[in-house]
Design brief:
The chain has 4 helices and no strands. With 107 residues, the protein is mainly α.
């Protein structure tokens, strides 16, 4: 990332941090760093079930292993949520099937 101002002049990392902090204060936002913003964005991509390869490219990682090493906690969380979602789905289908059987046998 090579940020520049409106005249296309390079902005230093400290200028970027200061500008970001000023905007956050003026807007009444939680003060987070550029790194925090990158990490949050990536976590949201995983929660949206964006493929790992796409996230890797977006982050500019040359190796998918780098992405996986940094963000495996996110994918583990998503796996647990998926298992819970599937269990709830199966439970609802079982109840629906049970109700259908009851209706069929009581007729």
């Amino acid at each position: 990332m090579f940020p520049a101002d409106s005249t296309n002049k390079h902005i230093t990392s400290s200028q970027l941090r200061n500008n970001m902090r000023q905007v956050q204060i003026k807007a009444g936002l939680l003060q987070i760093t550029v790194h925090d913003l990158r990490h949050t964005s990536t976590s949201l991509l995983f929660e949206a079930v964006v493929p790992m390869e796409v996230v890797k490219d977006r982050l500019g990682h040359s190796d998918i292993q780098t992405t996986m090493n940094i963000y495996t906690h996110v994918t583990k969380k998503r796996k647990l949520e998926t298992a819970e979602d599937f269990a709830l789905f199966m439970e609802s289908k079982t109840k629906c099937l049970s109700n259908s059987v009851k209706q069929f046998t009581s007729s």
